[in-house]
UniProtKB/TrEMBL annotation:
PANTHER family: 60 KDA LYSOPHOSPHOLIPASE, L-ASPARAGINASE. GO terms for molecular function: asparaginase activity. SUPFAM superfamilies: Glutaminase/Asparaginase. It comes from Timema bartmani. This is Uncharacterized protein.
Length: 131
């Protein structure tokens, strides 16, 4: 592994043919979304959108417009590769240490549905958001 200019490890080979990788992050740790020990919906996404090394706002706006539900985009790497990601939250917020079997099943089904999902963009080569 080599260290990229952004200070994180990158693999030596290309990640995809398209130059972009997509993933969906499911947060099951309410401590990551708390202010004074009270879970706050959308706190993580709000923080990530304001953090330049976790979201390239200029690129996201050029590809997806000003849609607040558009995916987050990691900054470009030296290999010209983009990673698009979303953060999904449940209402109420889930705590993995206190989930029922039905909630685990729902999580698995949601992950299955998210595989292969694409996002609507303003660019001509992009896919359409949907299941």
């Amino acid at each position: 592994m080599r260290l990229s200019t952004l200070g994180r490890h990158v693999s030596a080979g290309p990640c995809s043919r398209t130059g972009r990788t997509s993933f969906v992050y499911f947060s099951l740790d309410p401590a990551l979304t708390m202010i004074t020990l009270v879970p706050v919906p959308d706190l993580m996404v709000s923080f990530l959108r304001r953090t330049p090394h976790m979201h390239d706002e200029e690129y996201a706006t050029s590809r997806f417009g000003n849609d607040p539900t558009s995916p987050l985009v990691l900054p470009d790497t030296m290999h010209r590769h983009r990673v698009l990601y979303t953060v999904s939250e449940y209402t109420p917020l889930l705590d993995s240490s206190n989930m029922s079997m039905q909630q685990w099943i729902q999580l698995a089904e949601d992950i299955k549905r998210s595989v292969g999902r694409k996002w609507k963009t303003t660019g001509p080569r992009e896919g359409v958001y949907g299941d």
